Amino acid sequence: MKTWQRIVSAVLGVVGFVLKPITNCIFALIYERHARKVPPITDSILLQSGTSLAKKIRKREVTSEQVVETFINRIKVINPIVNAVVSERFEDALAEAREIDSIIGAGKLDERYSEVNAPFLGVPFTTKEAFAVKGLSNSSGLKSRSTIIADVDAPVIKNVRKAGGIPLCVTNVSELCMWWESANTVYGRTGNPYNNSRIVGGSSGGEACTLSAAGSVIGVGSDIGGSIRLPSMFCGIFGHKPTFGIVNNDGQYPNATAKEKDYLVTGPMCRYACDLKPMLKILAGDKGAKLKLDQEEDIRKLRYFTMEDDGGDMLVNSVDSEIRATQRELVKKLTESLGVTVQPVQLSKLKYSLEMWEAKMSTCGGTTFCELMGNGVPVNPYLEFIKWLVGLSNHTLPAISLGMTEKLGRLFPEKQKKAISICEKLKEEFQELLGDNGVLIYPTQPRVAPYHNQPLLMPFNFAYTGVFNVLGLPVTQCPVGLNSEGLPMGIQLVGSLYSDRLTIAVAQEVEKLMGGWQPQIRG
Ligand SMILES: *[C@@H]1O[C@H](CO)[C@@H](O)[C@H](O)[C@H]1NC(C)=O
Ligand SMILES: *[C@@H]1O[C@H](CO)[C@@H](O)[C@H](O)[C@H]1NC(C)=O
Ligand SMILES: *[C@@H]1O[C@H](CO)[C@@H](O)[C@H](O)[C@H]1NC(C)=O
Ligand SMILES: *[C@@H]1O[C@H](CO)[C@@H](O)[C@H](O)[C@H]1NC(C)=O
Ligand SMILES: CC(=O)N[C@H]1CO[C@H](CO)[C@@H](O)[C@@H]1O
């Protein structure tokens, strides 16, 4: 670090330390007056994994109709509090459930409905509104798309349907899925189920919220900078970002063009870790073979590493002490329960996470964000900002700021080149460190879910998740308990390319050790 950087860093640190309680007080004053949690869960159907529900439906211990109806009723209870579900097909879902019940009831199931081909037969699922689900809204939170109704299912939605899943509804996102608070001018803002004065994260924020509040049990998200992992942490559930290039990204808006093809990934989100693997298998389809998901792994034989922060990027908040302490507790428990050593590491290049993400995203060509905002015709973000100031813009402030940042980034090509070369070296370092049997434990975010709009004061914290998009590595976000304010904390398990089965296997152990998803109110 150069001297001036040290000084700026120190000053920002002090300012941040002083400002944190002050800004928190201001946001608390604005948002906390009417803060609520979702009500307790009263039906045991809502407290089982998708895998376990599927088994019971197949054995006729419960009907698919009962299960679907129970989730629909739960959505009706939670949605007035959190505003997470934006478009539904409840009647169709119930009809499909009855059809499945009658097929199961008739006895002998044909090949199509075997346990291997239809592991989630009769189980409802949900997805973010950016994915096309036939008959449901498909706007991606963009005002000019607000009347679009999807006329087909996205390929991943088709896959889950083929596996027996029944789509229930689609859930809220940030405008064009490019911000980490799920709010837009089409469907409004989603509140955190643990405390709705807080954000749910984004862009798969409505999805994480619905899953956490037990309005759903398995879901599909996508992630280009943390859109699966960040909301999964803020809402206390599991979310897996697969190795790049495995799961089909088509049928979501914005569509993955040449540009994001390598960074955007589609993956599973769920409350119970045991659902991650079967969901990933279904989403991946034929390409999943490369991940060898059925290979048994002895997690005692893996090598474990831990890193508690990014090494101090000036523009990113430092990791909260409670999150740090919880990560240490996890390391201790893993050591004891598995008899492994967890080696502390410090990969110094992670400090440039933000620069690497920004440089990779803005130099890969394809549709610009300003073009996406204008649905083809680029908008002028500076003009939109002026319109926003007087309440005339159809866009959210984060989207407008991102449009402006995109324009600014292009002014520093040399800096971007340097960041890209750091990124390439870091890829090699990760491959060397993790090999084919290593897992790194790393915070998902430096802070728990902030208040609404507060991310505008800490816009770059997503760098903690975003860096793994440009590295292409598989990552599983795991809930590791609630902090002193009752808000979920999370850690990322990072593997080397194509080692998704390892991070998922360790996630199941982390669930046992740290308690996994926690209900908002104990019933
Ligand atoms: C929301 O969080 C704040 C503190 O962060 C707390 O004072 C308040 O009681 C919480 N509200 C609910 C409903 O849990
Ligand atoms: C905002 O969107 C509405 C509905 O799509 C449209 O009628 C209006 O012209 C838009 N306003 C601006 C300033 O673009
Ligand atoms: C909804 O969006 C998806 C993804 O962009 C697209 O494939 C689908 O055709 C859209 N549906 C309509 C009716 O435009
Ligand atoms: C989305 O991308 C896929 C493949 O990259 C392409 O086949 C499809 O036409 C695209 N859809 C739109 C609406 O651009
Ligand atoms: C705040 C807001 O606009 N909420 C909307 C979310 O979506 C549902 C379903 O379309 C609407 O009923 C709400 O009004």
UniProtKB/TrEMBL annotation:
GO cellular component labels: endomembrane system
Domain of life: Eukaryota
Domain Amidase positions: 67-502
Record: active site: 128 (charge relay system), 203 (charge relay system), 227 (acyl-ester intermediate)
MF terms in GO: hydrolase activity
Assigned keywords, A-Z: Hydrolase, Membrane, Transmembrane, Transmembrane helix
SUPFAM superfamilies per UniProt: Amidase signature (AS) enzymes
Pfam families: Amidase
Segments passing through the bilayer: 7-31
Similarity-based family: Belongs to the amidase family.
Name of the protein in its database record: Fatty-acid amide hydrolase 2
Lineage: Eukaryota, Metazoa, Spiralia, Lophotrochozoa, Brachiopoda
